[in-house]
Each structure stands twice: as structure tokens, then as C-alpha cells.
Design brief:
- The protein is of the alpha/beta class and 421 residues long.
- It has 17 helices and 15 strands.
Length: 421
């Protein structure tokens, strides 16, 4: 296989300082590819004064970490805030900027589009977005291989934001939209077998399972307990880290808390993150006083300390793909209780490194948490097994698989071009 460095154009609708699991993953992937000697052209969303000030002030790893690489270049495409979530971006329409011209100037060996449906406008129900498939015009004109990477369960997100009644009206056209979104790409990569199966039933074209989504298992580690943010607080702690949004089901943490507290009176729930439901979450949590801490955003060693400090990581979201925070908790030696979602059964093994709970069932979720906290032997076994259960998803191993797939696609494209000549 040809191991010459590749020229990779990578489009993403989410990147620092916009805080999501996708943003973090894209940054890690680009940095790794640069470290291997590949030339990467990152096309990412701009940050402008239309967004809340705290968005631009986030201390997230981003361009500053990549600019020293001589084989790196970047372009910030124009954006406006997403209609339903003002802290996240949507690309302006293709009439305002040209993906094709950018690619003509760079002339990549392969094009990667992270979360292609979001770039086109799925997140805004096509009220915003680029308006056509990113990168495809150039790829078809030049024969350049192009792939898309699925991070989130976009169909489930639409269901949450529209509500069941409107979603039912849209349901008949969803397979058509999924087909239209995926048939433009040579491959559509899913890091979860379950999500791939779900989208194949929705008419996904050329879908592939590839465990491209990893975490830095050296960074997330039990030894980070030295960064314990609350060293003088010895209460059993359950932790959530994520965006405070409807699709994350964060309010169910408030519903389950009194059920857990009835069995574990000194339980402490810590919620880390930010989002449009911040005010409602704080209002509802306030009646439990010190029992629930809404911490806000956390970064750096403080966040690493939270993952290692927690007794259990809790995730009530039923819309997860291959959830980054679940993996970060496990790598930190913390058992996970999560609801059954498209990929959680590939991360959480009941009775081994945590438990899976029924979706939208706070009583079942609470009972799973109580079962662990009341059984010190079970908790110790799950803690011991948490980190080993996730090591196969270390970032380097996953990105090596991703790199190998890029080489395969480039090689196949070169062979096709040689047969035409």
C-alpha cells in the first residue's frame, strides 16, 4: 500500500471554540494526521460577534495547537447561529462561499466531510445550511474520493426538537433525505454498528462500520484523581458531562435524584456543561440545595479530575452515537450507567463496567445507580474493569484504522483512473 503522505481536505461544521464531542474529535483527528506527516486543509466554521461572548472565550484546544505544523492550512467559512441552538454554527449558503473553489486551490488526494448532513442543513430542517452536499461537485469533476463521517443520530435529534407529532409527519420523507445525503459520498463511516444498522434501514447508501472514534486513554486516567475538584467533599458523587439540551435528557437527572437520595441520603449529583436549558436546570436543581451542583463548563485538568473523582458517570441521553464522555469516564476508571441508545451496548457491558437502563425511565435508571453504590464489592469490580474495557478505543489505534481506510480509497481511485486512461 502506498504510504506517501496524503493531501487531505477536511470539512467540519463543528470545531473549537464551539464545544461538542464532534469539535473535540475533529481536532484530535487532524492533529494526529498532521503528526503522521499528512498535509491537512481544515475547513471549519468561523466564530463571529453573532454568538454569545462565552463561546469565543472557551479555553479549548484548537487552531493555535495546529498552526505550528508546516503541513497545515485552514479556512473559516462564514456562519450564523443555528436557529434552535444559538451557541452552535450553521454554514451560510453556497452563494456566499464556494467549497469547490477551495478544493480547486488545494487539490486534495481525498476529501473528508465530518457530519455532512449538518453541513447541508439537516440540523435546521433546511432553513439554514450550505444548501447542497459539501465537496461533491469537485469530487465528481476530478474523480477525487470523498467520504462522510457520521457522529450523531441526526434523525433522533430532529425528533426531539420537532416533537413526536411533527416528526410523524416528516417520517415518510426521512428515508429519502438519508438516501440523498449519503449517496453523494463514496463511503459513509459510522463508529457504531447499531447506528449503522438503524441508518441502513432508513436507506443509507454505502454505509460502513469503522471504529474511528477514540479517546486519549493516556490523558483520561484514574491517576487524575490528583486533580480532584472537591478534595474535602467525601460524598458519593454521580457525574454528568455534556451539553444542557433537550436531546441529552438532562432533566431526567433531576427526576431520578430524589429516588437515589431516598436510598443514598448523602448522594451528590454534579452536572457539567452548558446549553439552552441552563436556566431551567438550575431552577429545578435549586430545590435540592447542596445535593445537586450545576457546575457549568469545565476544562483542562479540572475536567480530568471530575472524571476520575466520580463514583459513577450517568448519561440519560437516548440519542447517543459512540458517546465520547462515556468513554472518557471509563478510561478514567469510573463505571457508567447509561440508557440504551444506538451505541451504548457497545460501550457499557451490564454487570461488568456499568449498567444500561431503560430510556426515559428515571426509576429504572435510579435503581441501577443505587445497586452499584450499595454494593461495595460490585462497585470495586466495575471500577477495576472500567478502564480495560475501553482501551481498544484508544485514539491512536482508532485513527490508524481511519488512516488505513483513507489509503484504500485513494488507491482504489487511482486504479479506477488508470483503467480509464
Amino acid at each position: 500500500m502506498n504510504k506517501q503522505p496524503l493531501r487531505i481536505a477536511l470539512f467540519t461544521g463543528l470545531y473549537a471554540p464551539f464545544l461538542t464531542g464532534v469539535s473535540v474529535a475533529v481536532h484530535q483527528r487532524v492533529r494526529w494526521l498532521l503528526q503522521q506527516g499528512h498535509e491537512v486543509f481544515l475547513i471549519h466554521p468561523e466564530i463571529n460577534d453573532q454568538y454569545p461572548k462565552n463561546v469565543g472565550d472557551r479555553p479549548m484546544p484548537g487552531l493555535d495547537e495546529l498552526l505550528p505544523f508546516p503541513n497545515f492550512c485552514a479556512y473559516a467559512f462564514p456562519t450564523r447561529p443555528l436557529i434552535f441552538y444559538k451557541s452552535l454554527p450553521q454554514p451560510l449558503n453556497y452563494r456566499h462561499w464556494s467549497d469547490t473553489k477551495l478544493l480547486e486551490n488545494f487539490q486534495p488526494d481525498i476529501i473528508v466531510v465530518e457530519e455532512a448532513p449538518q453541513m447541508r442543513g439537516f440540523y435546521s430542517l433546511f432553513l439554514q445550511g450550505y444548501g447542497r452536499s459539501i465537496g461533491v461537485e469537485y469530487a465528481q469533476k476530478t474523480g477525487t474520493p470523498i467520504i462522510s463521517i457520521f457522529h450523531t443520530d441526526i434523525v433522533a435529534y430532529i425528533q426531539y426538537y420537532l416533537g413526536q407529532q411533527w416528526f410523524n409527519l416528516m417520517r415518510p420523507i426521512i428515508p429519502m433525505l438519508v438516501k440523498q445525503s449519503t449517496e453523494a459520498y463514496d463511503a459513509n463511516l459510522f463508529s457504531s454498528r447499531e447506528q449503522l444498522h438503524k441508518y441502513e434501514l432508513l436507506n443509507c447508501q454505502r454505509g460502513e462500520y469503522l471504529p474511528y472514534q477514540g479517546i486519549d486513554c493516556e490523558k483520561f486516567h484514574p491517576r487524575n484523581i490528583i486533580y480532584n475538584p472537591i478534595p474535602d467533599d467525601h460524598r458519593p458523587t454521580i457525574l454528568f458531562v455534556g451539553r444542557i439540551t433537550a436531546e441529552k435528557n438532562v432533566m431526567q437527572l433531576i427526576e431520578m435524584f430524589p429516588l437515589i437520595a431516598a436510598e443514598i441520603p448523602d448522594i451528590h449529583l454534579v452536572v457539567i456543561g452548558s446549553g439552552p436549558l441552563d436556566d431551567e436546570l438550575r431552577r429545578r436543581a435549586s430545590k435540592f440545595k447542596s445535593g445537586i451542583t450545576v457546575w457549568g463548563e469545565s476544562h483542562g485538568t479540572e475536567l480530568l479530575g471530575w472524571f476520575a473523582r466520580a463514583d459513577i458517570f450517568v448519561n440519560p441521553s437516548a440519542t447517543e452515537n459512540f458517546c465520547t464522555t462515556n468513554n472518557e469516564a471509563l478510561a478514567s476508571g469510573t463505571p457508567v450507567v447509561a440508557v440504551v441508545a444506538p451505541s451504548t451496548a457497545e460501550q457499557v457491558f451490564p454487570g461488568h463496567n456499568g449498567f444500561l437502563a431503560k430510556p426515559n425511565n428515571p426509576a429504572d435508571f435510579a435503581q441501577k445507580v443505587v445497586t452499584i453504590l450499595k454494593n461495595s464489592l460490585l462497585k470495586a469490580e466495575m471500577t477495576a474493569q472500567a478502564r480495560p474495557s475501553i482501551l481498544q478505543y484508544d485514539w491512536s489505534a482508532c485513527t490508524e484504522k481511519f488512516e488505513a481506510r483513507l489509503y484504500q480509497l485513494v488507491q482504489a481511485s487511482e486504479k479506477l483512473e488508470s483503467t480509464k486512461a
